[in-house]
Design a protein that fits this description.
Radius of gyration: 38 Å
Order of helices and strands: HHEEEHEEHEE
Distance between the termini: 138 Å
Number of helices: 4
Shape: elongated
Strand content: 15-25%
Oligomer: single chain
């Protein structure tokens, strides 16, 4: 009887150890699942897209490698731009680089020629950082930078650079959209003297 019991006991142990099956449970069957389908869009938080205005498009056509920036090395210049205080109707200001050369451009628009001329003459009375007075046709150094300054019947334009400003190229690019001829055009190279160009009518 004891032998029969021992044989049955060993057989029971043998069969229970022989089947070692593991059960795999899928967690999705136990955890609640979201019913929504999410679409993840491309991260655009660090991308700024600026559309060009007409003047910028004109410059881009003339100078394909131009790059418009919010700042460049001319941003911190302390020059006095008196037309900022003299009742303009519209103002444009751009900082840009062309072939690693920094530029700063300003344009002030006025309702008529009297206001444009008045703003121009007042600016000459207080020019650059030291607010020096400059007489018409006076050949003096007006700025440490090279620049191109022009006055038409409705606008004043100012382009400065820390390098050479090619007057003919920029004159064409800046004034080709202005139907009114300019009254005064002043150009100056770096540490040079102002050259006055007054067109004959």
């Amino acid at each position: 009887m004891k032998h029969t019991f021992l044989i049955l006991f060993f057989l029971l142990i043998l069969f229970s150890c022989g089947k070692n099956e593991s059960v795999v449970v899928d967690s999705s069957s136990l955890l609640p699942q979201s019913q929504s389908n999410y679409v993840y869009e491309e991260d655009t938080t660090h991308k700024e897209v600026h559309s060009l205005d007409e003047f910028q498009k004109t410059l881009t056509t003339t100078f394909p490698h131009i790059q418009f920036n919010n700042r460049n090395i001319l941003t911190d210049d302390k020059a006095i731009f008196l037309p900022n205080r003299l009742g303009y109707t519209n103002k444009k200001e751009y900082y840009f680089t062309l072939d690693t050369i920094a530029f700063h451009f300003l344009q002030w628009d006025y309702t008529d020629s009297a206001k444009s001329m008045n703003a121009f003459f007042n600016w000459l009375d207080c020019f650059n950082t030291d607010c020096r007075s400059i007489r018409i046709l006076e050949r003096v150094n007006g700025s440490k930078n090279s620049f191109l300054l022009a006055q038409s019947n409705q606008s004043i334009y100012f382009l400065e650079s820390n390098n050479i400003v090619d007057r003919k190229s920029w004159e064409k690019a800046v004034f080709q959209h202005d139907s009114l001829p300019f009254n005064y055009l002043i150009s100056q190279s770096i540490r040079g003297k102002m050259k006055w160009i007054i067109p004959t009518r």
